[in-house]
Amino acid sequence: MVVIPKETVVRYVTRGQKGLDSLFQEASTHLSESKDILLAKVDELKKKVTSASDEEKEEIQSEIEELEEVISDLEALVADASANDNLNAS
């Protein structure tokens, strides 16, 4: 059994935390950008649905619902990343 000195463990954990700080901030930025792209796509689809046939309307409406679920998930991920970034900044 290998025993790692406590100081070494603390050093590596601290180094890992510093790396995570920047990752949470970066993740939050990328997730927000992805959400904005999907919101634009939903707006585009909502405009398209007004001139679509009944069959196309169903497909478009289904796609809108799926995208809105993904957007909701992205919002939760952004909130988590921001919360973790704030915790690590303290």
For the structure shown, list the relevant keywords.
coiled coil; 90 residues; mainly alpha; Tubulin-specific chaperone A
Secondary structure topology:
Layout: H1 6-49, H2 54-89
Order of helices and strands: HH
The separation of the N and C termini measures: 36 Å
Instruction: Enumerate how many helices there are, as a single number.
Output: 2
Strand content: under 5%
Query: How can the largest sheet be summarized?
Result: none
- Strands, total number: 0
Shape: rod-shaped
Structural class: mainly alpha
Query: Can you give the mean pLDDT?
Result: 80
For the record, the count of structural domains works out to: 1
Tell me the radius of gyration.
21 Å
- Low-pLDDT runs: none
Percent range of helical residues: over 70%
Structural summary, described in words:
This protein has 90 residues and is an all-alpha fold. It has one domain (6-89). 89% of the residues lie in helices and 0% in strands. It has two helices and no strands. The chain has helices at residues 6-49, 54-89. Helix 1 runs antiparallel to helix 2 (54-89). It is rod-shaped. The two termini are 36 Å apart. The mean pLDDT is 80. Residues 35-84 form a coiled coil. It comes from Caenorhabditis tropicalis. This is Tubulin-specific chaperone A.
In short:
It is built from two helices and no strands. With 90 residues, the chain is mostly helical.
